[in-house]
Amino acid sequence: MTRLTVNDRPLEFRMDPQTPLLWGLRSAANLTGTKYGCGSGDCGACMVLVDGAALRSCLITLGEAEGRVVTTIEGLSPDRSHPVQQALVAEQAIQCGFCTPGIAISAAALLARNADPTPEDIAAAVPNLCRCGVYPRLVRAIQRAGRVMRRLETISAAPAPGLTPEDAARAVPAMRGE
Questions:
Q1: The model's pTM
Q2: Residues 88, 71: one domain?
Q3: Mind listing the pLDDT tens digit for each residue in 78-129?
Q4: CB of 130 within 8 A of CB of 138?
Q5: Which of 30, 29, 55 is nearest to 41 (CA)?
Q6: CA gyration radius for the chain?
Q7: Same domain for 148 and 89?
Q8: How far apart are CA 107 and CA 127, in angstroms?
Q9: CA dihedral in degrees (148, 128, 66, 78; nearest 10)?
Q10: Residue 174 pLDDT more than 90?
Q11: Alpha helices, H only, 91-157
């Protein structure tokens, strides 16, 4: 039996310790916000916070997560009030939504350690793939969430100015891995 804390709740998983954390969260804990994308750690759809670090839950086993603190998208902010979640909506950085939970987790981990990231910082810290290609809006949303966390701005429905075309041109290829 594997024990860990998930979204501030102690849980015991009666699954093989070699089971990927992703499947423990989705199948046993019914936390389906964490998505299965590629199963090989390339896409980031399964990103969760493990002891505050963004990790791909398809690559970590339940056994490796034993005794650790895991936060899924459901635990990031149950009422969706986290600045990253609000900024993603406000900047219209969500298309199909499949990749959004993993991106929100990666962005939250980045902003916890650097609330004023450059586009290059974001490209390095948010490795998630988005098939809809909303990368310029993701950069704007993450920077906006950082401003909210630094108490320089509040979230409104209107997109905020700030990301220049030059910034986007530098950040987008890096976020795609080019």
A1: 0.86
A2: no
A3: 888 899 999 999 999 998 889 999 999 999 999 999 999 999 999 999 999 9
A4: yes
A5: 55
A6: 16
A7: yes
A8: 10
A9: 40
A10: no
A11: 100-113, 119-125, 135-149
Structure-token match 């034993």, residue found: 66
**What does DSSP say about strands 53-56 and 47-50: parallel, antiparallel, or unpaired?**
antiparallel
- Measure CA 157 to chain center: 21
* Lookup: tokens for 27: 């199948």
Domain ends where: 58, 76, 94?
76
Question: Residue 115: CA atoms inside 13 Å, Cβ hemisphere, count?
Answer: 11
**CB half-sphere exposure, 160, CA atoms < 13 A:** 23
Q: Cα–Cα distance between 158 and 87 in angstroms, integer?
A: 10
Domain count, the chain: 2
Is the pLDDT score of 4 beyond 60? Answer: yes
Give 17-66 pLDDT, tens digit per residue: 999 999 999 999 999 999 999 999 999 999 999 999 999 999 999 999 99
Label residue 5 left, alpha or beta by phi (over 0 means left) and psi (-120 to 50 means alpha).
beta
Q: How many helices (H) and strands (E) does the chain have?
A: 8, 5
Span between the terminal Cα atoms of the chain, in Å:
42
- For residue 80, the model assigns a pLDDT of 87
Which candidate, 34, 38, 37, places its Cα nearest to that of 65? Answer: 34
Q: In which domain, by residue range, is 122 found?
A: 83-175
